[in-house]
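Reminder: ligand-aware prediction takes two inputs, not one.
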Amino acid sequence: MSVDPRREKGQIKYGHFISNCYVPRTIALTYDDGPSENTEELLNILDEAGAKATFFIAGNSNGKGPIDTTSKWTDVIKRMVEDGHQVASHTWSHPDMDEMGSQDRRLDMAKNERALANILGKYPTYMRPPYLHCNNQSGCLSDMRDLGYHVISYAFDSGDWMDPNNLTAMTERVDRAFQSTDAQEGRMLLIQHDTIRTSAVNLTKYVLDMISQRGWKAVTVGECLADDPERWYRDPAWISLASRSKRGCVVSGRDFCGDVRRFHTKVECFRSNVQCEQAALECMNSGSTDKKDCEKLETICSMQFLFCSTCGEPEPPCDIGNFNVDKRA
Ligand SMILES: [Zn+2]
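Here is what comes back for the chain with zinc ion:
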Protein backbone atom coordinates (compact mmCIF):
# COMPACT_ATOMS: atom_id res chain seq x y z
CA MET A 1 0.00 0.00 0.00
CA SER A 2 2.97 2.29 0.45
CA VAL A 3 3.22 2.48 -3.34
CA ASP A 4 -0.09 4.32 -3.58
CA PRO A 5 0.11 7.87 -4.82
CA ARG A 6 -1.02 10.14 -1.98
CA ARG A 7 -1.99 13.19 -3.95
CA GLU A 8 -3.34 16.12 -1.99
CA LYS A 9 -6.75 17.02 -3.31
CA GLY A 10 -9.09 19.90 -2.53
CA GLN A 11 -8.81 22.87 -0.17
CA ILE A 12 -8.69 21.12 3.21
CA LYS A 13 -5.21 21.03 4.74
CA TYR A 14 -3.30 17.78 5.23
CA GLY A 15 -1.14 16.95 8.26
CA HIS A 16 -2.71 19.80 10.16
CA PHE A 17 -5.21 19.73 13.06
CA ILE A 18 -8.75 20.76 12.18
CA SER A 19 -11.05 21.32 15.14
CA ASN A 20 -14.22 22.95 13.90
CA CYS A 21 -16.72 22.94 11.07
CA TYR A 22 -16.65 25.56 8.34
CA VAL A 23 -20.24 25.30 7.15
CA PRO A 24 -22.78 27.29 9.26
CA ARG A 25 -25.73 25.48 10.84
CA THR A 26 -23.99 22.13 10.68
CA ILE A 27 -22.81 19.91 13.49
CA ALA A 28 -20.48 16.97 13.01
CA LEU A 29 -21.14 14.12 15.41
CA THR A 30 -18.04 11.96 15.66
CA TYR A 31 -17.56 8.61 17.35
CA ASP A 32 -14.16 7.16 18.28
CA ASP A 33 -12.83 3.69 19.10
CA GLY A 34 -15.61 1.61 17.51
CA PRO A 35 -17.19 -0.37 16.16
CA SER A 36 -18.64 -1.87 19.31
CA GLU A 37 -21.75 -3.67 20.53
CA ASN A 38 -23.55 -0.29 20.58
CA THR A 39 -22.82 0.75 17.02
CA GLU A 40 -25.72 -1.04 15.31
CA GLU A 41 -28.22 0.63 17.65
CA LEU A 42 -26.52 3.98 17.15
CA LEU A 43 -26.87 3.57 13.38
CA ASN A 44 -30.59 2.94 13.83
CA ILE A 45 -30.96 6.11 15.93
CA LEU A 46 -29.08 8.20 13.37
CA ASP A 47 -31.08 6.69 10.55
CA GLU A 48 -34.39 7.52 12.21
CA ALA A 49 -33.32 11.13 12.66
CA GLY A 50 -31.94 11.41 9.13
CA ALA A 51 -28.60 12.35 10.71
CA LYS A 52 -25.12 11.63 9.35
CA ALA A 53 -22.03 11.07 11.48
CA THR A 54 -18.35 10.20 11.25
CA PHE A 55 -16.80 7.08 12.72
CA PHE A 56 -13.12 7.09 13.66
CA ILE A 57 -12.41 3.40 13.60
CA ALA A 58 -9.64 1.67 15.50
CA GLY A 59 -8.98 -1.55 13.60
CA ASN A 60 -7.96 -3.79 16.44
CA SER A 61 -8.18 -2.25 19.91
CA ASN A 62 -9.92 -3.09 23.18
CA GLY A 63 -9.71 -6.80 22.38
CA LYS A 64 -12.49 -6.63 19.80
CA GLY A 65 -10.52 -8.56 17.17
CA PRO A 66 -9.46 -7.35 13.70
CA ILE A 67 -12.30 -5.46 11.98
CA ASP A 68 -11.79 -7.16 8.61
CA THR A 69 -11.95 -10.74 9.83
CA THR A 70 -14.62 -10.39 12.50
CA SER A 71 -17.85 -10.53 10.52
CA LYS A 72 -20.02 -8.46 12.86
CA TRP A 73 -17.53 -5.57 12.59
CA THR A 74 -17.18 -6.01 8.84
CA ASP A 75 -20.96 -5.82 8.45
CA VAL A 76 -21.42 -2.77 10.63
CA ILE A 77 -18.61 -0.85 8.87
CA LYS A 78 -20.14 -1.62 5.49
CA ARG A 79 -23.47 -0.39 6.79
CA MET A 80 -21.89 2.92 7.88
CA VAL A 81 -20.91 3.70 4.29
CA GLU A 82 -24.17 2.36 2.88
CA ASP A 83 -26.12 4.64 5.25
CA GLY A 84 -24.14 7.67 4.07
CA HIS A 85 -21.88 8.12 7.11
CA GLN A 86 -18.17 8.81 6.87
CA VAL A 87 -15.58 6.23 7.87
CA ALA A 88 -12.24 7.58 9.11
CA SER A 89 -9.14 6.14 10.73
CA HIS A 90 -8.32 6.10 14.44
CA THR A 91 -5.21 3.93 13.86
CA TRP A 92 -5.01 0.14 14.03
CA SER A 93 -3.96 -0.52 17.64
CA HIS A 94 -4.77 2.82 19.31
CA PRO A 95 -1.19 3.72 20.32
CA ASP A 96 0.15 7.05 21.53
CA MET A 97 1.65 8.14 18.21
CA ASP A 98 4.02 10.68 19.77
CA GLU A 99 5.66 7.84 21.67
CA MET A 100 6.65 5.77 18.65
CA GLY A 101 9.11 5.96 15.78
CA SER A 102 8.07 6.99 12.31
CA GLN A 103 8.29 3.47 10.90
CA ASP A 104 6.01 1.93 13.56
CA ARG A 105 3.59 4.80 13.24
CA ARG A 106 3.30 4.39 9.47
CA LEU A 107 2.92 0.65 9.84
CA ASP A 108 0.08 1.06 12.33
CA MET A 109 -1.72 3.44 9.93
CA ALA A 110 -1.09 1.07 7.01
CA LYS A 111 -2.66 -1.87 8.86
CA ASN A 112 -5.86 0.09 9.36
CA GLU A 113 -5.83 1.17 5.71
CA ARG A 114 -5.49 -2.41 4.55
CA ALA A 115 -8.26 -3.64 6.84
CA LEU A 116 -10.65 -0.88 5.76
CA ALA A 117 -9.78 -1.47 2.10
CA ASN A 118 -10.51 -5.16 2.64
CA ILE A 119 -13.99 -4.23 3.80
CA LEU A 120 -14.82 -1.19 1.69
CA GLY A 121 -12.50 -1.38 -1.30
CA LYS A 122 -11.12 2.03 -0.28
CA TYR A 123 -9.49 3.69 2.70
CA PRO A 124 -9.96 7.08 4.38
CA THR A 125 -8.17 10.42 4.07
CA TYR A 126 -9.45 11.57 7.48
CA MET A 127 -7.99 10.44 10.78
CA ARG A 128 -8.03 11.30 14.47
CA PRO A 129 -4.96 10.43 16.56
CA PRO A 130 -5.66 8.53 19.80
CA TYR A 131 -5.56 10.92 22.79
CA LEU A 132 -5.12 13.64 20.14
CA HIS A 133 -1.40 13.02 20.50
CA CYS A 134 0.31 13.88 17.24
CA ASN A 135 2.73 16.79 17.26
CA ASN A 136 5.52 18.26 15.14
CA GLN A 137 8.39 17.31 17.45
CA SER A 138 7.69 13.58 17.24
CA GLY A 139 7.37 13.80 13.45
CA CYS A 140 3.80 12.52 13.65
CA LEU A 141 2.16 15.43 11.84
CA SER A 142 4.61 15.28 8.95
CA ASP A 143 4.02 11.52 8.69
CA MET A 144 0.27 12.18 8.48
CA ARG A 145 0.91 14.76 5.78
CA ASP A 146 3.05 12.29 3.80
CA LEU A 147 0.34 9.66 4.13
CA GLY A 148 -2.27 12.16 2.95
CA TYR A 149 -4.42 12.54 6.05
CA HIS A 150 -6.56 15.35 7.38
CA VAL A 151 -6.00 15.32 11.15
CA ILE A 152 -9.29 15.89 12.96
CA SER A 153 -9.59 17.19 16.50
CA TYR A 154 -12.85 18.53 17.97
CA ALA A 155 -14.42 21.78 19.15
CA PHE A 156 -16.26 20.27 22.11
CA ASP A 157 -15.61 17.18 24.17
CA SER A 158 -18.72 15.40 25.41
CA GLY A 159 -16.48 14.14 28.20
CA ASP A 160 -18.28 10.81 27.97
CA TRP A 161 -15.06 8.99 28.90
CA MET A 162 -14.73 10.75 32.27
CA ASP A 163 -17.81 9.17 33.82
CA PRO A 164 -19.20 6.68 31.29
CA ASN A 165 -22.54 6.09 33.05
CA ASN A 166 -23.35 9.65 34.01
CA LEU A 167 -25.75 10.96 31.37
CA THR A 168 -26.53 14.13 33.36
CA ALA A 169 -22.88 15.17 33.39
CA MET A 170 -22.73 14.59 29.63
CA THR A 171 -25.90 16.55 28.80
CA GLU A 172 -24.76 19.44 31.01
CA ARG A 173 -21.50 19.60 29.12
CA VAL A 174 -23.32 19.51 25.81
CA ASP A 175 -25.71 22.27 27.00
CA ARG A 176 -22.73 24.45 27.83
CA ALA A 177 -21.19 23.70 24.45
CA PHE A 178 -24.38 24.75 22.64
CA GLN A 179 -24.45 28.02 24.62
CA SER A 180 -20.88 28.95 23.79
CA THR A 181 -20.13 31.69 21.30
CA ASP A 182 -18.72 29.31 18.71
CA ALA A 183 -21.90 27.29 18.72
CA GLN A 184 -24.13 30.33 18.19
CA GLU A 185 -23.08 30.29 14.56
CA GLY A 186 -24.01 26.66 14.39
CA ARG A 187 -20.70 25.18 13.42
CA MET A 188 -19.67 22.46 15.75
CA LEU A 189 -17.54 19.34 15.91
CA LEU A 190 -18.38 17.12 18.84
CA ILE A 191 -16.52 14.05 20.10
CA GLN A 192 -18.16 10.94 21.59
CA HIS A 193 -17.30 7.23 21.80
CA ASP A 194 -19.55 4.53 20.42
CA THR A 195 -17.85 2.14 22.85
CA ILE A 196 -19.63 3.99 25.69
CA ARG A 197 -23.26 2.94 25.68
CA THR A 198 -24.77 5.91 27.54
CA SER A 199 -23.02 8.22 25.11
CA ALA A 200 -23.75 6.28 21.91
CA VAL A 201 -27.43 5.78 22.68
CA ASN A 202 -28.76 8.28 25.24
CA LEU A 203 -26.52 11.26 24.64
CA THR A 204 -26.88 10.92 20.87
CA LYS A 205 -30.69 11.10 21.20
CA TYR A 206 -30.34 14.19 23.39
CA VAL A 207 -28.00 15.92 20.95
CA LEU A 208 -30.20 15.06 17.96
CA ASP A 209 -33.17 16.67 19.75
CA MET A 210 -31.20 19.86 20.34
CA ILE A 211 -30.06 19.90 16.73
CA SER A 212 -33.60 19.59 15.40
CA GLN A 213 -34.88 22.30 17.80
CA ARG A 214 -32.30 24.67 16.39
CA GLY A 215 -32.91 23.67 12.79
CA TRP A 216 -29.31 22.59 12.34
CA LYS A 217 -28.15 19.63 10.34
CA ALA A 218 -26.09 16.68 11.61
CA VAL A 219 -23.56 15.96 8.88
CA THR A 220 -20.26 14.14 8.36
CA VAL A 221 -16.95 15.88 9.08
CA GLY A 222 -16.26 16.01 5.34
CA GLU A 223 -19.57 17.72 4.71
CA CYS A 224 -19.17 20.23 7.54
CA LEU A 225 -15.84 21.20 5.96
CA ALA A 226 -17.46 21.41 2.51
CA ASP A 227 -15.10 18.72 1.21
CA ASP A 228 -16.29 16.71 -1.79
CA PRO A 229 -17.20 13.10 -0.77
CA GLU A 230 -14.87 11.87 -3.55
CA ARG A 231 -11.97 13.13 -1.42
CA TRP A 232 -12.90 11.33 1.81
CA TYR A 233 -11.25 8.14 0.59
CA ARG A 234 -8.48 6.84 -1.62
CA ASP A 235 -8.48 3.82 -3.86
CA PRO A 236 -5.67 1.42 -3.02
CA ALA A 237 -3.39 0.85 -6.02
CA TRP A 238 -4.31 -2.81 -5.94
CA ILE A 239 -6.66 -5.15 -4.17
CA SER A 240 -5.73 -8.71 -3.52
CA LEU A 241 -9.10 -10.43 -3.65
CA ALA A 242 -7.73 -13.32 -1.62
CA SER A 243 -6.78 -11.01 1.23
CA ARG A 244 -10.22 -9.46 1.32
CA SER A 245 -12.46 -10.25 4.23
CA LYS A 246 -15.17 -12.77 3.41
CA ARG A 247 -17.99 -10.31 2.98
CA GLY A 248 -15.95 -7.36 1.76
CA CYS A 249 -16.72 -5.15 -1.21
CA VAL A 250 -14.36 -4.58 -4.14
CA VAL A 251 -16.31 -1.42 -4.86
CA SER A 252 -18.22 0.20 -2.06
CA GLY A 253 -20.71 3.02 -2.40
CA ARG A 254 -23.95 4.20 -0.89
CA ASP A 255 -26.43 1.27 -0.94
CA PHE A 256 -23.94 -0.67 -3.00
CA CYS A 257 -21.38 -3.36 -2.34
CA GLY A 258 -19.77 -4.65 -5.55
CA ASP A 259 -18.43 -8.11 -4.92
CA VAL A 260 -16.38 -10.69 -6.81
CA ARG A 261 -17.28 -14.20 -5.70
CA ARG A 262 -14.49 -16.57 -4.84
CA PHE A 263 -13.36 -19.11 -7.44
CA HIS A 264 -10.79 -21.90 -7.62
CA THR A 265 -11.18 -23.31 -11.16
CA LYS A 266 -11.62 -21.94 -14.67
CA VAL A 267 -15.32 -22.88 -14.71
CA GLU A 268 -15.91 -21.18 -11.36
CA CYS A 269 -13.99 -18.17 -12.60
CA PHE A 270 -16.41 -17.68 -15.52
CA ARG A 271 -19.41 -18.34 -13.25
CA SER A 272 -18.16 -15.73 -10.81
CA ASN A 273 -17.64 -13.40 -13.77
CA VAL A 274 -21.27 -13.77 -14.91
CA GLN A 275 -22.36 -12.79 -11.40
CA CYS A 276 -20.00 -9.81 -11.51
CA GLU A 277 -21.50 -8.62 -14.82
CA GLN A 278 -25.04 -9.08 -13.47
CA ALA A 279 -24.24 -7.04 -10.37
CA ALA A 280 -22.76 -4.26 -12.53
CA LEU A 281 -25.85 -4.27 -14.73
CA GLU A 282 -28.23 -4.16 -11.76
CA CYS A 283 -26.18 -1.31 -10.39
CA MET A 284 -26.55 0.61 -13.67
CA ASN A 285 -30.30 0.04 -13.71
CA SER A 286 -30.89 1.06 -10.12
CA GLY A 287 -31.84 4.66 -9.53
CA SER A 288 -30.12 5.15 -6.20
CA THR A 289 -26.51 4.10 -6.84
CA ASP A 290 -23.74 6.40 -8.00
CA LYS A 291 -22.98 5.39 -11.59
CA LYS A 292 -19.25 5.87 -11.03
CA ASP A 293 -19.33 2.93 -8.61
CA CYS A 294 -21.11 0.79 -11.23
CA GLU A 295 -18.47 1.72 -13.81
CA LYS A 296 -15.69 0.75 -11.41
CA LEU A 297 -17.27 -2.66 -10.94
CA GLU A 298 -17.70 -3.05 -14.70
CA THR A 299 -13.99 -2.39 -15.21
CA ILE A 300 -13.17 -5.05 -12.62
CA CYS A 301 -15.55 -7.54 -14.32
CA SER A 302 -13.78 -7.00 -17.66
CA MET A 303 -10.42 -7.58 -16.00
CA GLN A 304 -11.81 -10.76 -14.47
CA PHE A 305 -13.07 -11.96 -17.89
CA LEU A 306 -9.56 -11.54 -19.32
CA PHE A 307 -8.13 -13.38 -16.34
CA CYS A 308 -10.61 -16.29 -16.69
CA SER A 309 -9.78 -16.56 -20.41
CA THR A 310 -6.04 -16.81 -19.92
CA CYS A 311 -5.56 -18.45 -16.51
CA GLY A 312 -4.44 -22.04 -16.07
CA GLU A 313 -2.57 -22.32 -19.38
CA PRO A 314 -0.55 -23.36 -17.39
CA GLU A 315 0.08 -20.23 -15.31
CA PRO A 316 -1.30 -18.48 -13.33
CA PRO A 317 -3.67 -20.92 -11.65
CA CYS A 318 -7.39 -20.10 -12.03
CA ASP A 319 -7.76 -19.13 -8.41
CA ILE A 320 -9.06 -15.90 -6.91
CA GLY A 321 -5.78 -15.64 -5.01
CA ASN A 322 -3.99 -14.98 -8.30
CA PHE A 323 -6.43 -12.37 -9.56
CA ASN A 324 -5.28 -9.01 -8.24
CA VAL A 325 -7.25 -5.97 -9.22
CA ASP A 326 -5.07 -3.12 -10.29
CA LYS A 327 -7.19 -0.16 -9.25
CA ARG A 328 -5.15 2.23 -11.36
CA ALA A 329 -6.45 0.53 -14.50
ZN1 LIG B 1 -9.64 6.65 20.99
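The mean pLDDT is 92. Residues 32-33, 90, 94, 130 surround zinc ion (CB under 6 Å). We will return to this case in the review session.
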